[in-house]
Design brief:
The strands form 2 sheets. Strands 3, 4, 5, 6, 7, 8, 9 and 10 form an 8-stranded mixed β-sheet that branches. A two-stranded antiparallel ribbon has the order 1-2. It folds into 2 domains: 145 residues, Alpha-Beta Complex (FdhE-like fold); 130 residues, FdhE-like fold (Alpha-Beta Complex), CATH 3.90.1670.10. The protein contains 9 helices and 10 strands. It is of the alpha+beta class. The structure holds zinc ion (ZN) (2 copies). The site of one zinc ion has 8 residues, from loops.
Amino acid sequence: MATQIITDGSTDRVREAPRVVLPANPRLFEERAARFAQLAAGHPMGAYLRLMAQVASGQQAVLGSREAAPLQQAALEQSRSYGMPPLAAQGHARAPLWRDDLRDILGAVRADAAPGVRPALDRLAAMDDASLEAVADRVLTGTTLDDDAAVVPFVGAALQVYFTRQAASLAVDDVSHCDVATVCPVCGTRPVASVIRIGGAQASLRYLVCALCQTEWNMARVQCSSCETDKGVHYLSLAENPDSDQAGQAAVKAEACDECKTYLKLMNQEKDPFVDPCADDLATLALDLLVDEQGLARSGPNLLFHPGSG
Ligand SMILES: [Zn+2]
Ligand SMILES: [Zn+2]
């Protein structure tokens, strides 16, 4: 189950593709920051995307600054026995470490923060641990309040760093037990988007990318990532204006499903090698508006964004 045998039609080129790819890239958030900065140029939401570039830079600085908390052996055992995600976002006892990550990200962003951002930073700095944990719970359960909107990107960013670091400390054998195709095999969170990858063993394959811990898992192309049907799946994109070459637009489509009336974005690295599931998602909120108008609901979150704030 952990490995998929793939052939491109020639007998000598059978290759094995990983079913699950843990977030081992030590420069993941640095690359995301660069993508946010690239997408911000000339974008109507440029100021917001530049702030997200600062947040991602802060995430990068913090990611390698601490060791992962020790893995909970009971959770690994439960995963082996019952196929539960070993770091289930909603059941996992978060180490207080994530709040240190949050404080460091706030410090990194504050250094260059625009005046409009400071109230959110001040508010978070003044919150006690119980209030921070309550916001974190709402971020992880998709129940953020309109009042949380300004602080969600920072809390979401810190939780991403914490869970990414924890996920990277797992072994592939630890994550081969949960095979529910529609949620992350590590933390049980829904994907932020899916990406058709280029290069290496993942080339030309579609991977769903966890909104929280950045783990990727394989799913067939042209299959609904929410109900797994391959019927009634169709694609919507922003009308492409050949004169306005806004970065990323041609590489991002919404994969919509008539069966379960949901959608998730699909990004194609073959069209733009620099697409990032989190950054390109936030740079194409106009596509969400277009698809929402058709009565389709988004099936996975972006933890840097409170959905009511669009
Ligand atoms: Zn995950
Ligand atoms: Zn569906």
